[in-house]
Amino acid sequence: MQQLRYFCAVVRTGSFTKGAEQEEVSQPSLSQQIHKLETELAGPLFERLGRSVKLTPIGQALLPRALAVLQELAAAKSETQSLLEGLQGELRVGCIPTIMPFFLAPRLPAFVELYPAITLRLLEDTTARLLERLRSGDLDLAVIALPISSPDIVCSELFREEILLAVTPDHPMAQSPAVNLSQLRQERMLLLKEGHCFRDSVITACHKAKLELRSIFESDQFASIFPLVAAGYGVSLIPAMASSHAGKCRILKLDKPSFRRIGYVQARRHFAGKSQKAFIAWLRESARQLKLAQLV
């Protein structure tokens, strides 16, 4: 099992060094275990390409089976722990960066107060990496943007969130009640980097409006984008939940609203114990309260 975990970690991170860091072992130890697995399978699993690796045909054949085995093991652990512990133990939750600081983090103290015996282990990462963690059994569930088209992943929607525009307060559009995306044709756009699903939501909305983006800055977080917008360096399309963190930016609605869907996902064969079901119920109630607040 350890060898399979290490194998999946190298695939997930693309290198032995990063895989070892993620598994919290030394690189020689990880390499030794991978070598033992290769010996048992009588063939190499990876092609070494400098600092990166590429799966061989043997590695490609092993990967889906390794993920399935690790997922079954995680399900067995969850089920036995649920029977033994009830509403306690560890719950592993992933979340994307455009949701964690704005929706999940501010509400987590309420969950901890409700269920002090449940230890939440949180991971913030991009959607693709969170899905790999779900498939390998490293996560119990993840809160991300939907939809996800994958036969081994089950999706459940929580709410829909409006996409808004952030501009500097003295921008010519700053006093407009609503903005059409076509008005951004000459604007300098500040975006999240590739890999962030909110970037994909923005690009999709702009394509529908036949707007070609002029990206002049890309970041992993809105904490870097908002000060630049406030300083007049450019404009940015943002998720509504991030607007309260926008500082001195002016936040505007779009005249033809665009939305992204927010929900949680689980591996199809993963057993949901009592702690996980309690977290999901709490998530749904948090989403219900958010939707009620938006109607006020």
What is the secondary structure topology, with strand pairs?
Layout: H1 2-13, H2 16-23, H3 27-41, E1 46-49, E2 52-55, H4 57-85, E3 89-95, H5 100-114, E4 118-124, H6 127-136, E5 141-146, E6 153-167, E7 178-179, E8 189-192, H7 197-208, E9 215-219, H8 222-230, E10 236-239, E11 250-254, E12 259-267, H9 274-295
Parallel strand pairs: 3-4, 3-5, 7-11, 8-9
Antiparallel strand pairs: 1-2, 5-12, 6-10, 6-11, 6-12
Helix pairs in contact: 1-2, 1-3, 1-4, 2-3
Description of the molecule:
The protein is an alpha/beta fold and 296 residues long. Among the domains are: 1-85, Winged helix-like DNA-binding domain superfamily/Winged helix DNA-binding domain (Arc Repressor Mutant, subunit A, Orthogonal Bundle); 159-261, D-Maltodextrin-Binding Protein, domain 2 (3-Layer(aba) Sandwich). Helix content is 45%, strand content 24%. It has helices spanning 2-13, 16-23, 27-41, 57-85, 100-114, 127-136, 197-208, 222-230, 274-295, and strands spanning 46-49, 52-55, 89-95, 118-124, 141-146, 153-167, 178-179, 189-192, 215-219, 236-239, 250-254, 259-267. Strands 3, 4, 5, 6, 7, 10, 11 and 12 form an 8-stranded mixed sheet that branches. Strands 1-2 form a two-stranded antiparallel ribbon. A two-stranded parallel sheet has the order 8-9. Helix 7 (197-208) links the parallel strand 8 and strand 9 (215-219). The radius of gyration is 22 Å and the shape is globular. The model has no long low-confidence stretch (mean pLDDT 90).
